[in-house]
Amino acid sequence: MLAQQRTDSLLARQDNAYSNLMLTQVAEHLDSQRQKENSEEDGRLSLLHEVVLNARLDPTSAD
């Protein structure tokens, strides 16, 4: 009976460890995806700033 309890306890620990590993992998994937989206947004903002700055500095502008 004690051996069965020990086996059950070890299996529960192993299940818990695998669950934590999977949650960590999901969190890392989501973080990576969020960083990629942030980089893409930074690129779009940089391009927008460049276009706006060039438009304002264009000597042929009607301003």
Keywords:
mainly alpha, 89% helix, 63 residues, 1 helix
Number of helices: 1
How would you describe the shape? Answer: rod-shaped
Strand content is under 5%
Q: By helix and strand content, what is the structural category? A: mainly alpha
Average pLDDT for all residues: 91
Radius of gyration: 27 Å
Order of helices and strands: H
The major pleated sheet works out as: none
Span between N and C termini? 89 Å
Q: Are there runs of 5+ residues with pLDDT below 50, and where?
A: none
Bin the helical content. Answer: over 70%
What is the number of E strands?
0
Summarize the structure in words.
- It is a single chain.
- By secondary structure, the chain is mainly α.
- It contains one helix and no strands.
- The chain is rod-shaped and about 90 Å long.
- The mean pLDDT is 91.
Task: Please outline the helices and strands.
Elements: H1 2-57
